[in-house]
Design goal:
This protein has about 425 residues and is an alpha+beta fold. About 15% of the residues lie in helices and about 40% in strands.
Length: about 425
């Protein structure tokens, strides 16, 4: 069929298909395999995919059986499941991964919730490929005790994807040393690099940190404290393009709050900050105030949106759905949604271990399809088929031929219509 179509027309047709179909179509012939695996095609497919509304990625650790669940959810009121994602990875502790972020079909996972494991994975579940990052330079054996935070996102100018690791090493008096040690891993090089952090004079919240990738940069809540227990909070920003740090001011009402009562998230192109009521002061956290920066970078655009109060307590605010609803994890480990306009809650019927939930936007892509044999070499691996719950190979082949026939009829219709 491709012999009768100009290459540009064939590329335009194939780039509009879903990832699962394209993975199968790589088996049609060498030329199709080469085309679908090429960087230009992968980027074209991604740009078209990003025009569609994203799904929501849900992750949590269930109690019985105890295992991690990953799924894509529709953005309707019932939060219905669209597709399950089989996770092939296991944590060293037997608990759950922390999702550092999701960007253009890549999910970044870290096994650091229960000890120093140095396990960081960049995973594309749609094509069942992943990269296990090498050990960073800052580790316990060489630096002693330290705490760290991570961020994940893209460098749009170079179509690259990076992980940034900020490590605060303890000095002889068991205090954090400033500036921190900062390393960046890029998929384009497959290596960690040390970057300058000389301008960083603040600390990121230990362990309970949150991050948000917005406008090409990763954002964390950071603070300075004095001996009298007074805090000065701000947002620490790392630009994934120029790899420079800067700060964004918080609204005056949040500057002197307890840092552990603050968390950061993203809603579209906006930064969102959550202020928990008594979350880390030993009190029962039953409420949260939502602040939004309406215009990115404009400190004067901070707006206090609403206050949400929940019977049974709030463990974590997970973020916003695509319809404006707020998704929350209750203290008992169940998922609920809150609609600010109606001031109403809805139980979503999903329960798991406390603090194991993650919700974020997700789109499928072909990223990592072309990575094997490049600078990443053997870092890129395919998920073992024994760990997946895929359909048998015969049914895959039958479905591929059926999809080819549908595509053939569609092209014939377009040509001869």
């Amino acid at each position: 069929m491709s012999d009768y179509l100009p290459p540009t027309v064939l590329t335009d047709i194939l780039s509009r298909l879903e990832v699962k179909t394209l993975v199968r179509f790589r088996c049609v012939c060498k030329s199709w395999c080469s085309l679908i695996s090429s960087p230009n095609f992968i980027n074209k497919h991604l740009s078209l995919t990003l025009n569609n509304p994203p799904h929501l990625l849900l992750k949590y650790l269930s109690r019985s059986p105890k295992r991690e669940h990953y799924s894509l959810r529709l953005t309707n009121e019932s939060f219905d499941e669209f597709a399950q994602i089989q996770c092939p990875f296991k944590t060293a502790s037997g608990n759950f991964f922390r999702v550092i972020g999701s960007c253009n079909g890549l999910i970044c996972l870290s096994d650091e919730c229960f000890g120093f494991t140095y396990t960081i994975i960049i995973w594309n579940p749609a094509i069942k490929k992943y990269v296990s990052l090498p050990m960073p330079g800052v580790c316990f054996d060489s630096y002693g005790p330290y705490t760290f935070a991570l961020g994940f996102g893209s460098d749009p100018s170079k179509m690259d994807y990076k992980v940034v690791r900020i490590a605060y090493v303890f000095d002889a008096d068991h205090k954090y040393m400033l500036p921190p040690e900062v390393e960046v891993y890029a998929l384009s090089t497959g290596e960690w690099r040390t970057v300058s952090a000389h301008c960083v004079t603040c600390k990121i919240i230990e362990f309970f940190w949150s991050s948000a990738f917005v406008n090409g940069a990763v954002h964390w809540i950071a603070y300075n404290g004095d001996e009298e227990g007074e805090f000065s909070n701000r947002i620490l920003v790392f630009d994934m393009g120029n790899e420079l740090f800067r700060e964004i001011e918080l609204p005056n009402q949040l500057v002197h709050d307890y840092p552990l009562d603050l968390a950061i998230s993203a809603c579209g192109d906006s930064i969102v900050v959550f202020l928990y009521r008594g979350r880390m002061t030993g009190q029962f956290c039953d409420g949260c105030t939502v602040w939004v920066m309406e215009e990115y970078g404009n400190v004067g655009s901070w707006s206090k949106r609403f206050f949400v109060e929940l019977d049974g307590g709030i463990s974590n605010v997970l973020g916003f759905g695509n319809s404006g609803e707020l998704l929350l994890e209750k203290c008992i480990g169940s998922l609920v949604s809150y609609q600010p306009e109606r001031d109403g809650f809805k139980s979503l019927g999903i329960s798991g271990f406390k603090d194991s939930f993650y919700v974020g936007n997700y789109v499928e892509s072909l990223l990592l399809m072309d990575a094997k044999g490049g600078v990443l070499g053997d870092q890129v691996k395919s998920v073992d088929a024994a760990n997946s719950e895929d359909e048998p190979e015969l049914s895959k082949l039958e479905q591929m031929f059926e999809e080819l026939n549908i595509l053939r009829r569609w092209v014939a219709h377009m040509i001869f219509a």
